[in-house]
Amino acid sequence: MHFLIQCARWIDRVNEKIANAISWALMVAVLVCAGSALASYFFKLGSNAWYEIQWYLYGAMFLFTAPYTLRRNEHVRIDVITHRFSKRTQVWIDVFGFLLFLLPMAILIFYLSVPFALESIRNQEMSNNAGGLIVWPAKLMIPTGFLLLCLQGLSELIKRIGYLCGLVDASEFEKTVVTPEDEIAAIRDANLDKIKSIQSH
């Protein structure tokens, strides 16, 4: 069990690094969107490639940050009933939720999307739009994103079983940000760190 817990923590670190890296995609998407709009308005220049780049970036953000969202316990849930139960009962509900819903769904989508992506790669699929981009990188993001979600789901399952066995503290999987004020502060601090990083270079 200790080995599995170490594996779970390794998965957490990997998905956290991926999410931190892909968070820059939002800034790139905003710049591309603004640049495309300005070029179209002032110079009458436009290209479907610029629009498709934005779609790719938004797709990457959603697919590659979903595991990190699960890691932080920030996914949408309805706690009308479960918050009345003891912590152990809540953890058991999570265990059954991962086993019966999250993991089967993520594994199924991963399984179905692999041949979908491979076919696109094999055919070197291009966009149907004039001046569009190659399509297979976007399709490859689907199985990659869901593979990462499967791994994070396994990590969360291991940590909760570890908690039930008395080997893991609940702080390893409880909600990281509790209030909207904390959420805003966390976003602000992350953006300030990025600005400082840019200025240092």
From TrEMBL:
Residues 38-160 form the Tripartite ATP-independent periplasmic transporters DctQ component domain. Its main location: membrane. Keywords: Cell inner membrane, Cell membrane, Membrane, Transmembrane, Transmembrane helix, Transport. GO terms for molecular function: transmembrane transporter activity. It is a multi-pass membrane protein. The complex comprises the extracytoplasmic solute receptor protein and the two transmembrane proteins. This is TRAP transporter small permease protein. The keyword Cell membrane applies.
